[in-house]
Amino acid sequence: MVGIIGGSGLYEIPGFEVVEKVKLNTPYGAPSDEYVVGKIGDRGAVFLARHSREHSIPPHKVNYRANIWGFRTLGVKRIIAVNAVGGIRDDFCPGDIVIPNQIIDFTKNRQHTFYDGPEVYHIDFSEPYCPEMRKAVLSIDNTVHDGGTYACTEGPRLETPAEIAFLKLAGGDMVGMTGMPEASLAKELTLCYLCIAVITNYAAGISTTRLTTTEVIETMKASTERVKLLISELIKNLPEERSCSCKDSLKDARA
Ligand code: HPA
């Protein structure tokens, strides 16, 4: 079963045959919305709107732990996450799609782990994104950018140009507010996690135009058809069994 987390402007997937909507509660509280359980082709899939279908939950208020826990409860082994980001790297332009391979966490006030004690665990996070799913998605569409570092900020405010200059120096290629702790929580539960990052704007100071929430959502919507197609092709092409090392992250940490 594959989970899909829709970001701003992505609330449904074409060809998604809805079977049921499931409202869950978890030991960590309520997920963002009902999980929409169904099928894409002959593959089981579950969709969740990260900000809720009304887009009423800001990035710093998303209950990331509940969302990821809920997916696992439903039997999901792989998660495809769609995230709106601002472009920092020169060749990352609005409308582009990037499949990041690294992430830097600049968030500061989020419930970011399932390992809150008494059990002490340090998961291996050297490969934050599933290599098997990255390879599969890159083989479907050769216009998407292969790799880049996602710098995740706390939000909800956008960054200053000085902060973006700092993130660039630190190695950030794109900036968003929802990449963490989603990616590491998935890893803690040994789920494969892929990020499809949609560049919705130039980050602050990269271009002089002021950014609005409407622009983010409108650019996301304009890329939505491509993203949806990418997701349905990816799900159809993924091997049934996982052959990546994501499921071993805990074993590695213990060793
Ligand atoms: N900064 C932070 N988060 C974002 C941006 C941005 O420029 N664009 C979309 N999400």
Secondary-structure topology with pairs:
Elements: E1 2-6, E2 16-22, E3 35-40, E4 43-49, H1 64-73, E5 78-87, E6 97-99, E7 102-106, H2 131-140, E8 145-146, E9 149-153, H3 161-170, E10 174-176, H4 182-188, E11 192-202, H5 213-237, H6 249-254
Parallel strand pairs: 1-4, 1-5, 5-11, 6-8, 7-9, 9-10
Antiparallel strand pairs: 2-3, 3-4, 5-10, 6-11
Helix pairs in contact: 2-5
The protein binds hypoxanthine.
Structure description:
- The longest helix is centred in the C-terminal third of the chain and has 25 residues, at 213-237.
- Helix 2 (131-140) crosses helix 5.
- The two termini are 29 Å apart.
- The chain contains 6 helices and 11 strands.
- Helix 3 (161-170) links the parallel strand 9 and strand 10.
- Strands 1, 2, 3, 4, 5, 6, 7, 8, 9, 10 and 11 form an 11-stranded mixed sheet that branches.
- It has helices at 64-73, 131-140, 161-170, 182-188, 213-237, 249-254; strands spanning 2-6, 16-22, 35-40, 43-49, 78-87, 97-99, 102-106, 145-146, 149-153, 174-176, 192-202.
- It has a single domain, classed as 3-Layer(aba) Sandwich (Rossmann fold).
- The radius of gyration is 17 Å and the shape is globular.
- The protein is an alpha/beta fold and 255 residues long.
- Hypoxanthine (HPA) binds at residues 84-86, 153, 158-159, 175-177, 200-201, 203, 211, 216.
